[in-house]
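Worked example 4.2. Below are the chains of a multi-component assembly; read each line carefully before continuing.
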Amino acid sequence: MSVIVEDFHKTYGGTVAVAGLTFEVQGGEILGLVGPNGAGKTTTLRALAGILTPTRGRLIICGHDLAEEAVAAKAALAYMPDEPKLFDQLTVWEHFRFIASAYRLKEWSARAEALLAQFELAEKRDTLGADLSRGMRQKVAICCGYLHQPQVIMFDEPLTGLDPYGIRAMNDSIRMRAQAGAAILISSHLLSLVEDLCTSVLILHRGQQLVHSSLADLRSHLTESGRKETLEDFFFRLMEAPDKIINSRPGDAR
Amino acid sequence: MNRALWVLLQLRYRAWLRRQSQKMHTLRGISLAGFGAILLCLWILSLVADPSVRRLGPDSLERYGALVLLAYSLVVILVSSSGKAVSFTPAEVNFLFSGPFSRRGLLVYKIITSLALSSLSAGFMMFLLHAYTRLIVAGFLGLVLAAAFLHLLSMAVSLAVITLEAHAYNRHRKFALGALFGAALLIVLQATGEAFPQSAGEFLTRAEESPVLHLILEPLSWYARAFAAPRVWPDLVHWSLMALAVNGVLAVAVIGFDTHYLEAASIAGERVYARLQRIRSAGSTVQLFAPVKGVFSLPSLPWWGGLGPIAWRQLLAAIRSVKGLLLYLCFCGAVLLWPFLFEKASRGITNLLGEMTPAIVIMATLFISSIIAFDFRADIDRIDVLKSMPIPPYGLAFGQLVTPVILATIFQLFLVAFLAAVWRGIGLLALFGVIFIVPFNVLLFGVDNLLFLLFPSRFIPTPGDFLLMGQQLLVSVARCATLTLMLIVAGLPAGIVYFVGGDPFVLLFAAWLGLASAAAGLVWFVAQAFSSFDVARSTPP
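Applying the procedure described above to all two chains together yields the following C-alpha cells:
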C-alpha cells in the first residue's frame, strides 16, 4: 500500500482543520480530494508531505511512518503546492541539480532534459526562477517533483496557471505516472478534472470525510438509484445537507 | 477626486487600524506592543534629554536647513527614474487603472496617500529633530510641508520623465545636470573669490552670499523658517503659507501634466512591489537588487548528511546577490572603519585599538548579521519546501548555516587584515582570535536562526507597528542573553584547564573545543526548532 492515513486529526488551537480522516491509496490509483474551501484538503496533503505534524493519527508513505521514518518517507514522495515556490536566484537547470543532489540521484540529466522537453521548458533552461511567469514556475515545480520518480505524488490545484498545452502535458503525465505504479493524490476544485482523471474520490467537508469511493462504484451507485448525475451534480447535492451524512454515516459514507 | 477614492482611503485607514488592533487580542500581542511602546518612549526620552544635540539649535537649522533641503532635492531629481514616484501597488493597478477614474483623480489620490504617510513619518522625525525647533507644532508642520515638497518634486520629475521619451530624457537630464554643475561652479567661484576659504563654515558663509544660490535657496528657506518658527503668529503662519504656496504650485504642475503615465506607473509599481516582496520574503535588504544573471555557477557539493545540497543552494544564492552584498559590506566596512582611520592620527590610542581588534570584529559581525542572512531567515516562504525534502533536520540546519558563516568569516578576515595593515601588527589576542572565528560564527548565526524560527517575523515593518518593535526588542535581548549563555558554557572547559593550571596551548585547545561543542549543540537546537516550526501557524503574514 503506497499511502495509508489512519485516524488523522489536525487542530489549530480550538479550530479543527481535519477530524478523523482514514483512507488508503494504492499504487496506480489516482485519488481526487474534493471539498469546499476550508474542508481540510491542503492540510491533509501538507501533513502527508511531512510539512505539518498531525495532532493525532498515523500517516504511512510506502511503508514508512512519517512520524518515525520521515526521511525515508519523504524520499518516496513529491508534493507540488498550489503556489509554486522556486528559488529566485537559481536557474531552472540549477533547480534540477539541487533536487538531484537532495534526493541523491545519479544519471538524472537525460531525465531532466526529457522533462524540459515534455513541459516545453527547454528554452528556459538557464532562466532564473525570479524571471519566470507563474505558469512557467508551476511547470518547473512539476518537473522538479517528477525528477526523482516518486512513488507517491501529491498535487494541490495542479492546473492553476497552466496554458492549454501545459494542461494536456500535465494530465498525460499524471496518467503515465499512475500507469507506472505511482499513487497519486490530487486536490482540486475542478470537478470535471477529477471526474476525468481520477480513479477514486474523497469528498471532505469541514475536516470530515463525507464520501470515499472509487469513481466507478460511485457512478454505478448513482445509476442504481435512478439518478443520472455528474460528479458536480452529486457534489452540490451532497453539500446541501452535509451534516446529515456526517451524523448518519460517520467514516466512509459511500 | 472621485468619491470612491475617498472611500478607498477611508477603508485602507480602517484596515490599518483593524490590523493593529487584531494583534492586540492575545496576551502575547499586548505584551509585545507594550514593550514596543516602552522602547519608543525610551527612545524619545533619550533624544529629548540628550544635551549634546542642543549645541546646534534652531539658529543653525534656519541657516543650513535650506541647504540640506537643496541637497535632498538634488538627490530626488537624480534618482527619480521613470514612473517611480507615481508607482501604484498591484492591487491599485488592478482596481483603479481599469476603473472609472480620471488620470488626474488618481494623481490626487496618490498625493494624498503620500502625504498621509509622510505625516506619520514627520511625527517620528519631529522627535529626532526636536532640538532644532522652538515650537512642537511648528516643527511638525515644517516637516510635513518639506516632506510634501519632496514628494511633489519627485512626482513632477517622474511625470516629466514619462512625458519625454527615454532618449530625450537622458539628453535632457545630461543638459540639466550640466546646468546644475555650471551653477554649482559659479557659486563655488563666487564663494572662494580671491582666496581659498580656510574652513567649511567660511565656505558656506561665502556661498550664501552668492546671488545664484541665494535665488535657489530662498523658497527652500521658507520650510526651514516654518520649522524653526518662534511664534505661531505671525512667524509660523507666514512661513508655512509661503511653503504651502510652493507646494501648491508643484501640485498644480503635477496634476496639470496631462500625460499617459498609467503604463509607466504600473510597470514601475510592479518593479517596486517585486523588490519589496523580495525583501519581505528573503529577510534582507541585499535582495533589493534583482539576482545577477550569467555569473558562474558552483560545482555540486557532496551529500554530507544533507548539508551539501542545502549549503550549495544558499552559496549560489549569495553569489547571485553579489551586487547587493558587495555594496552593503563595503558600506558597513566604511562605516565601521572610518572613525578608527580618523583616530589613527592620535598615536596614543594605536596600541589600544590594535588590542581591540576582536571587539571590532565581533561588533562588525553583529552589525552585518542581518545583511548576510542566507539561511532560514531567507527561506521564510519556503520552509514547507525544505520540510518536504528527504534531508535529516540536523543536516539541513547545518547546511543552512554554512553560507552566512563563510561570508562572515571572509568579511572578518578582511577586517583583521585591514586593521593589521593600518596599525602594522595586531595584538596577540586578535591573532589567536582568528582560530575561534568559525565556531563563533556558527554560534552567532545559530542563535540568530534559532530565535528566528521561534519568533519568526518579516524584515519590513509597517509604520507604527508597536507589536513588531516590541518583538524585535525582545528578540535582541534574547539574542544577547543566549549568546552570552552559550559563550559561558563554551568557556567552561577552558576555565577548568585554567584552574588546574594547564599548559597555555592546552588552555587554547580546551577553549576552542568548548566553543566548537557549544556551536554543534546549538545547531541541534536549531534543527529541533525547524522540526517544530508549524508553517500553517508560524509563518508571519
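Take a moment to check your reading of the output against the notes. The longest helix of chain A spans residues 164-179. The two ends of chain A are 21 Å apart (CA to CA).
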